[in-house]
Write a structure and sequence with these properties.
Length: about 150
């Protein structure tokens, strides 16, 4: 429970840092909390960190696109604070620590894990945004063909 509150506060803090309107901070915090919960549950069910971050970032992108349509705001307002709890900052720190201590094998391994995790986050947001735009375009095309037929 403490972790969920911390994630809510982190997402809201990033929202404040990026000057997101106050009335949207609750939504931004919700996106970050859901992303973190998906990551946490995936890891508890035995998934690895890269898969967990990918699934969580797909959720961030999907929820952000839905909120953008409902609230008529850009999706990036919800994406940026939403994926901050997923950023592998601790892994990046450990990579640098291993390298500074001369433990290069562990440093390279941790560095690769960090890069793959960051890539999974970016790819997850890309996938969800692409799927949303495909659905939107498909709906627009089907509506326009219906209008032409009638």
């Amino acid at each position: 429970m403490v972790k969920i509150i911390a994630v809510l506060l982190i997402s809201a803090s990033v929202g404040i840092l990026y000057r997101i309107p106050r009335k949207l901070l609750l939504y931004v915090s919700f996106v970050g909390m859901v992303a973190w919960l998906i990551m946490y549950i995936t890891m508890r069910l035995g998934g690895n960190g890269i898969l967990a971050d990918f699934l969580a970032s797909v959720a961030v992108g999907g929820i952000a696109e839905i909120l953008a349509r409902i609230l008529r705001k850009p999706a990036t307002i919800f994406i940026i604070p939403g994926f901050i709890p997923l950023v592998p900052g601790g892994d990046a720190y450990m990579t640098m620590l291993y390298m500074v201590e001369g433990n290069y094998v562990d440093g390279v391994a941790k560095g690769m894990q960090t890069i793959l995790t960051a890539g999974a986050i970016a790819f997850g947001i890309f996938v969800s945004s692409t799927i949303f735009r495909l659905i939107k375009n498909y709906n627009l095309e089907s509506c326009s063909t219906d209008v032409r037929k009638s």
